[in-house]
Amino acid sequence: MRRVSSVPDDRLRPVEHYENFPVASWLCPPRLRRPVAAIYWFARTADDLADEGEAPAERRLADLQAYRNDLQACYAGGPLSDRWPAVFPALRRAIVDFGLPRELLARLLDAFEQDVRKTAAGAGYADRAELLAYCSRSADPVGRLLLHLYGVGEPAALAQSDAICSALQLINFWQDLSVDLPRGRYYLPGEDCRALGIDPAAPQEWPTHPRGPALVERLCAWARELMLSGAPLVHRVPGRAGWELRLVVQGGLRVLRHIERTGFRSLGQRPRLGPLDGPPILWQAARM
């Protein structure tokens, strides 16, 4: 689905976003829709500060620091700036009402700052471990925040949530390769590139490299294995939220099927979910 992010900052234009999965959908328990939406817009707006527009890296980092200052003010009870009125008042209310862990929100900002620095340096990721460490900041905190709202905190459930969220992040990377590469965002692990004879220091060659599809296939298999390892979490999350999680898991696996149908050529084209994907996603979710 596609959403428009109206980022309330005159230095950042509204940005149109394609989203694979619904946010605060009708399956989400009504009392949790506001905090879920607050978490989403906090993360979405920070991601836009890190990634959208033409601002230099120094400006992006300064804006993210200002954004972090408002996050700190939410917890300290201090005054908020007037730069993001659509984000922080709602987030502060969610923090007060639901006790959202500060560390998890701060880790998201750490990831966005890392994105800015990596892109500015034209740097990639050496191996899968380094990429997963990034996912532990960019994706896993969102799942843990949602589990916090649902009252689920067992270590096994948290580990499964991390697996699902990291898998979703990886799937997004492999889906968006043709979009990220021109923007200087490099997520293909160097160790996997070298294993197939692809130079990790020559991203301009990746889209036309004859082993590119084999590399994407290898990485999609990794993401699928990670997703399936976390999938049992759907039986731990209660009620409607558990059904929404089923749809998220199956939506991610469906994206992988689309990548496969292109011959794993997402270095040159971006596969998308469409209306016809709804019935098979629902069927597979029900089978879980």
From TrEMBL:
Gene3D superfamilies: Farnesyl Diphosphate Synthase. The keyword Transferase applies. Keywords: Transferase. InterPro entries: HSQ_synthase_HpnC, Isoprenoid_synthase_dom_sf, Squ/phyt_synthse, Trans_IPPS_bact-type, Trans_IPPS_HH. Its EC number is 2.5.1.21. It is an enzyme of class 2 (transferase). One of its GO terms (biological process) is terpenoid biosynthetic process. It comes from the Bacteria. One of its GO terms (molecular function) is geranylgeranyl diphosphate synthase activity. This is Squalene synthase HpnC. The gene is hpnC.
